[in-house]
Write a structure and sequence with these properties.
Two copies of one chain form a homodimer.
Chain A: H1 3-10, H2 14-21, H3 29-41, H4 48-55, E1 60-67, H5 76-90, E2 94-101, H6 106-114, E3 120-124, H7 131-139, E4 143-146, E5 158-161, H8 163-176, E6 182-186, H9 192-206, E7 217-219, H10 224-236, E8 243-246, H11 249-261, E9 271-276, E10 292-295, H12 298-313, E11 322-325, E12 328-330
Parallel strand pairs in A: 1-2, 1-3, 3-4, 4-5, 5-11, 6-7, 6-8, 8-9, 9-10
Antiparallel strand pairs in A: 10-12
Helix pairs in contact in A: 1-2, 5-12, 6-7, 8-9, 10-11
Chain B binds a DNA duplex (30 and 30 nucleotides) through residues 2-4, 12-16, 18-19, 22, 25-28, 31, 46-56.
DNA sequence: AGAGTCTTCCAAAGCGCTTTGGCTTTCCTG
DNA sequence: CAGGAAAGCCAAAGCGCTTTGGAAGACTCT
């Protein structure tokens, strides 16, 4: 059932039917009702390919997925996706993932916008002076950055959490508990979130005249194994920290294992706070010692990103609005006063 | 730069240019070279919307993503996606995720094939008599099932791992080590993979005249917390098992924690084998006691699914070919002889 | 009553590609 | 050299929608 047939059976022109369906004003309300009705009754659905060719709108939002044998997709992605999908579903939006060589995403971005394959894109895991956001902004397609870049000479729309504030609060608490030597087990420090977190820790320490030792901050891919290794290295050194801030729950698993392997305890010998993106399958309160966390639901972020993208597509949102969500500091058993 | 312009500047018809580009035979090789050359030089890329409208082919593969506030996307998905994306990239395929109400995916399937939005779809986490595979097969779009259904009155193409064999081997090993009371901590037993695994365990036990006690098999969402709870329940009972087979590494985390909480040890008091889908961020060899696993890379499966879908799209693969991958049993420190 | 203004609808021109059907031209074959 | 086949190219008709530029009729106003 296509427009032509529908129009014919209503004894109307395609023009009128199309306009009736798309809510244009120049059609009699009575006629519109008739059209709407017939459309519903016959299950008419405009062919998206045709509509896209005519309008250039696709009803999809795009994401360039960095791939490659050596590239691991962040497990957080799936939670983010849950939220995004949840919103997208209720608005009949689809998400298209365009796999790209991790080292050459530009080609893919150019392709998907040149081809008008998607109405909007979002960018995740941005870095300072991220070339993708510069690119996309010149390409002139609605977009949203999940996270923040830095050092760009223009403003851009984003949704981020207050990573600096979160880790500032975490570190401040640890300092107040008497800790003098903190360590930070961070994610890839080429990404802005990691930079912000480190900044937060440093600021908190500085406020008490402390510093984050060169060897007390490490930046690694967020795996259990790396959490373990980093912790071993930290705790086996002569100036071992008495408290650790950690950028992910998965790494925290490794931290806990390392601490145990060394015959130490949490929080007796070392306090631990980790960032929790809120996974359904791994909860900080269920760690052997309930884990203190900085908590922010990445799933909700996904929903919000979808919502704002939809708003931008329909022109309801414009300009370079930045949105920063506060992060909860949830204190559980894994922190205590510094050991004597 | 569109076809018309290109044709005009080559002083050829659109027909010929189109044919030259798409490798049709009825065009002079010399002409084809000229066309190809000009196309490359001017960076001509056919507009996919137009092509799609004309051919009905979209160059995308689809996946219906069950969503909802209560629905959690499986974290395995992201690894599968890595593989799929890796292959898709090298073949210029995009992946479109169509979010759907988890309880009504049919509508969405119908929509994406009626709209010709995708050239093929894959179905994951199939259940016995899965209505989705019946639906998709009648809809007449190329598809592939990742996993297997059961009790369908027709054949279908799939890629699965030998879940039954894997858990059969795992259980057989445990039995050989003297264990008489095994337990299985399984995933959702409405899904075929879980059924197969249970079947494998039962078959191994039966071969030695043993059975899997009613209370020794549990079927839960695969979270750390559920692994923990199940293990506590199992081990605190009077007929506590001396060996546990577990359907996921994430649940195994909970198993390990529960065992430890109870003051027991692995493998002294209880042996443990878990299934490992191979995550980059959580490795069985790094468990406090290195974990024995049945191992199969879900990432490779993703690649293969993409490969076969591409083959089916281009007509290179046909019919209901099933493909079952063997699963490695990797023995590490978490298994030992049954306690006296 | 005539001019101007809405209102409501329509025919037809795209959007950029593929593909059908046909038209020349060249090349054999007997 | 006539007749037929094959090669190489083209014009034009879709694919199914949106949108432009009217046009016809109804209504208001002077």
């Amino acid at each position: 059932m296509n427009l032509k047939q529908l129009a014919h059976m209503l004894a109307l022109s395609q023009t009128t039917v199309s306009r009736a369906l798309n809510g244009y004003p120049e059609v009699n309300e009575e006629t519109r009702r008739r059209v709407m009705d017939a459309a519903k009754r016959h299950g008419y659905r405009p062919n998206p390919s045709a509509r896209r060719l005519a309008t250039g709108k696709s009803g999809m939002i795009g994401y360039v997925l960095p791939t490659g044998a050596a590239v691991d997709i962040d497990p957080h992605f799936v939670e983010f996706l849950s939220g995004l999908g949840d919103y997208a579903r209720s608005h009949e939006l689809d998400l298209v993932l365009s796999p790209a060589d991790a080292d050459d995403q530009e080609t893919t971005y150019r392709r998907i916008v040149a081809n008008r394959q998607v109405d909007a894109v979002y960018i995740s895991s941005p870095r300072p002076q991220d070339s993708r956001v510069a690119l996309v902004s010149t390409l002139g397609i609605p977009y949203l950055v999940h996270g923040r870049s830095e050092g760009l000479d223009f403003d851009y729309p984003y949704l981020d959490i207050d990573n600096e504030g979160a880790f500032h609060e975490a570190a401040r608490l640890l300092v107040q508990l008497g800790h003098r030597r903190l360590a930070l087990i961070n994610g890839d420090d080429r990404e802005t979130f990691a930079i912000h977190r480190e900044r937060g820790v440093r600021r908190a320490l500085a406020a008490s005249g402390l510093t984050l030792g060169e060897r007390h901050v490490c930046s690694v891919a967020m795996t259990e194994e790396n959490g373990y290794r980093a912790t071993r290295r930290l705790l086996e050194a002569s100036d071992a920290p008495t408290a650790i801030a950690c950028s992910s729950l998965i790494m925290a698993l490794g931290v806990v294992r390392a601490v145990r392997d060394l015959g130490l305890t949490i929080p007796g010998d070392v306090s631990l706070i980790a960032h929790d993106d809120v996974f359904p399958w791994l909860k900080p309160e269920n760690f052997s010692v309930p884990l203190s966390t900085t908590r922010s639901s990445i799933r909700l972020a996904g929903e919000r990103v979808a919502e704002r993208l939809a708003a931008r597509i329909s022109g309801l949102e414009e300009g370079a609005r930045g949105e920063v969500w506060p992060v909860d500091l949830v204190v559980r058993g894994s922190v205590a006063g510094a050991p004597a």
